[in-house]
Design a protein that fits this description.
Blueprint: E1 22-28, E2 33-38, E3 44-49, E4 54-58, E5 76-80, E6 88-93, E7 99-104, E8 109-115, E9 120-128, E10 135-143, E11 148-155, E12 161-165, E13 170-175, E14 182-187, E15 192-197, E16 202-206, E17 211-216, E18 229-234, E19 240-245, E20 250-254, E21 259-264, E22 271-276, E23 282-287, E24 291-296, E25 307-312, E26 317-322, E27 328-333, E28 337-342
Antiparallel strand pairs: 1-28, 2-3, 3-4, 4-5, 6-7, 7-8, 8-9, 10-11, 11-12, 12-13, 14-15, 15-16, 16-17, 18-19, 19-20, 20-21, 22-23, 23-24, 24-25, 26-27, 27-28
Length: 346
């Protein structure tokens, strides 16, 4: 049985250890909601949809959450319709929370300055047109040497990953190596990031050496060539890589030891999103089987991992994102919803 310090397994009435995440708020759109990301402060989250609409919603007070909670609509603090000419596929906040970027199947990236006090965009947005296909994912890296933000973006088309200097709004590097569309990007601090691709590989990149430092094929076995890498994440220590694949496999990989720890199947369909919780004790995965699954990583990672379905949508789940400090998360789905899930206080 879980203890008070372990919010994921606080006991419920049935005496089992299944966490009871409640749908606190649900934002309904007219089309599939592809992406949502928490602001680094945790005070709000941005939501991007196939309807081309960008919204920023307020993160609610959770202290009075009860088991009999009725889901309500979040407070929308900012809304921009026709933000792109196409669907909004991905979005990202800079680590300082003063920049937000969006990517679309209109092949553009939009970069905006964000004012957290007024919850509004400041000044002119920058439109970046270096991609020649759908922009599938992006992440920011702080360049400590000159205190500027760099935006890493990738997607379909030429299979290149672009690095943009946010101070000037200029792409200054195109990283080649993948032979298939880039589906996922993730950074865990410092100058390193990883990319996952349709070509079934994950590449590790270091901006200091301006190139790829390692290539792995996570879910491959002697009899099976692996599967397209739909989602990637690295834990804050940089030791553990997790990948989610289009064949429903997730894999755990020991970065320093350069070896696969294990492959497991928490879903019955594509794993479109994979993220460590803020403490890195849990893994949240989102799948095309309409489910969000929590996997416990606190034990021996070579043994079968305890997984439990913690939330469900009416259609494919496209993304799941943890709050930066709370044990709560947002999910987006083809059912046109972005839902915030949390545990009632024990």
């Amino acid at each position: 049985m879980g203890t008070m310090e372990d919010p994921a397994t606080s006991g419920n009435k049935d005496g089992d250890a299944k966490p009871r995440f409640l749908a606190v708020t649900s934002l309904e759109d007219v089309q599939a909601v592809r992406c949502a990301e928490f602001h680094p402060s945790g005070r709000f989250y941005a939501v991007g949809s196939n309807s081309k609409t960008l919204r920023i919603c307020s993160y609610p007070k959770l202290s009075d959450l009860r088991e009999d909670h009725v889901t309500y609509q979040p407070t929308v603090l900012f809304k921009r319709t026709k933000h792109h000419k196409g669907s909004i596929y991905c979005l990202a906040w800079s680590p300082l929370g003063d920049l937000v970027a969006t990517g679309s199947n209109d092949k553009t990236v939009k970069l905006m300055r964000f004012n957290p006090d007024s919850c509004n965009m400041d000044g002119q947005e920058v439109e970046l047109t270096m991609h020649d296909g759908t922009v599938r994912d992006m992440c920011f890296i702080e360049d400590a040497s000159n205190k500027s933000s760099l935006l890493i973006s990738g997607g379909a088309g030429d299979c290149k990953i672009y690095v943009t200097d946010c101070a000037t709004g200029t792409p200054f590097q195109a990283l080649s190596g993948h032979t298939g569309h880039i589906l996922a990007l993730h950074t865990w601090g410092g100058a390193m990031f990883v990319s996952g691709s349709q070509d079934r590989t994950v590449r590790f990149w270091d901006l200091r050496t301006r190139g790829c430092v390692n290539v792995i094929t996570p879910a491959a076995t002697p009899t099976k060539p692996g599967a397209p890498v739909a989602s990637v994440c690295v834990d804050p220590s940089g030791r553990l890589l997790v990948t989610g694949h289009e064949d429903s496999v997730c894999s755990l990989y020991d970065v320093r030891g350069s070896r696969c720890i294990q492959a497991f199947r928490p879903h019955s369909s594509d794993v479109r999103s994979i993220r460590f919780s803020p403490s890195a004790y849990y893994l949240l995965t989102a799948g095309y089987d309409n489910k969000l699954v929590l996997t416990d990583l606190q034990g021996d990672l070579t043994l079968p991992l305890p997984s439990v379905v913690v939330a469900e949508h009416q259609d494919k789940v496209i993304s799941g994102r943890w709050h930066p400090t709370d044990f709560s998360f947002i999910s987006t789905s083809a059912d046109k919803m972005c839902t915030l899930w949390a545990l009632p206080p024990v």
